[in-house]
Amino acid sequence: MMNHTITKGIGLLAALTLSVGALGACGSTQSADGGKTAAGKVFFLNFKPEAADQWKAIAEEYTKETGVKVDVQTAASNTYEQTLKSEMAKSQAPTLFQVNGPVGLASWKSYTADMSKSEVYRQLTNQDLALKSDDGQQVLGVPYAMETYGLIYNKDIMGKYMKLPDAKVKSVKEINSFDKLKAVADGIQQHKDELGVKGAFTSAGFDSSSDWRFKTHLANIPLYYELKEDKITTQPESVKGTYLPQFKQIFDLYLKDSTTDPKQLSSKTGDDANSEFALGEAALYQNGTWAWTDLEKAGMSKDQIGMMPIYIGAPGEKDQGLATGSENYWCINKKASKDDQQATEKFLAWMITSEKGKKAMSSDMGFTTPFKSFDDVKSDNPLVQEAVEDSKSGKTQVSWNFTMMPSEQWKNDLGNALLEYAQGTGNWDKVKSAFVDNWAKEYQANRQA
Fold this sequence. Notes:
Layout: E1 42-46, H1 52-66, E2 70-74, H2 80-88, E3 96-99, H3 102-108, H4 119-122, E4 131-132, E5 139-143, E6 147-154, H5 155-162, H6 178-190, H7 192-195, E7 199-201, H8 212-229, H9 244-256, H10 270-278, E8 282-288, H11 292-297, E9 305-308, E10 320-325, E11 329-332, H12 338-353, H13 355-364, H14 382-391, E12 396-398, H15 408-423, H16 428-448
Parallel strand pairs: 1-2, 7-8, 10-12
Antiparallel strand pairs: 3-11, 4-5, 5-11, 6-8, 6-9, 6-10
Helix pairs in contact: 1-13, 8-9, 8-15, 12-13, 15-16
């Protein structure tokens, strides 16, 4: 297991707010107007489809300023690993790619250059967040975005509900357990016509653009509580599924108090859920800080939304905060030419120290970054602001333990079992088997690969 502590740095969001600074470009080559041709080039295989346009734009800006060619390609949702394998097999392979944490790094360790002398590593607010070699001497992956997810809620709809005579709470702050969340969701569903909504929750779609919200992010909550209870901080060979009953009851709530008949979920997309929420058809939407760009494009204003933790009924959850972490680690391809590796390192330094690069990452892409060069910036993303406030609240934030899930196949099998359960073609025992039995199976398969 790589020298990476999953639970460190989770409470650092307040120190990681985004920035607009004016530090000079670090180590950049001369501009194209200077008449000097750059020796190396950059090829970034981007993991985030929602930031594809922004990466393209900043790459063009960097090329214009420095003369260094930067090619950005973006993998389709849920296809990053297979796309990376395909691209790495080509003669012009990515010079910059991404892994999702220790498990992802294990698959690509032979391609990762040492970044211990890079500017992006030096600028980390907490260098323990980096992915390192077994002996801790080499830095093989540097996180570039800390993100937070939970239940995004529509303040207007919640306000209308709380004015009803039989409302179970009078303030969103009173919702601090699964029981209270269920009471509110059931109340909204009961009064949906009066409130002008189609359901309490947006559709729990299982199209590939949406299923990760449940097979990965929602599944992380019971996993977090189990690993916390058993004091496990590195990838285990097996799991017990201790909190699967709680996983079932939150998933059941999503299905029952929804805008959509569960039998239609196989074709429901992430865009569908985003649209339902933006149009005021649902009060609650499981997603994260990255969702703001799409919600804003759909016409929502900053003062319309807030975010609360996902409560599943675990012990002590009244003190639970939002889920905060990273699955976004930059890696430089050590099999690329030295010129291309150096060009890539300089591009990353420019991204986190130049005014244009920092604006692209903070304002345009909406990232909360773990770099010192971003310390003085306040994000205009209302969900990031909620995350920052949550980190100051004294609550315990849920760590991103899904970076320890043994494989993409494990997630896909869990997603298939959840969908079958939702549609009534499968039972919860299959979900339990996919969660528990398949963990040990996939762990062993990856060890032998």
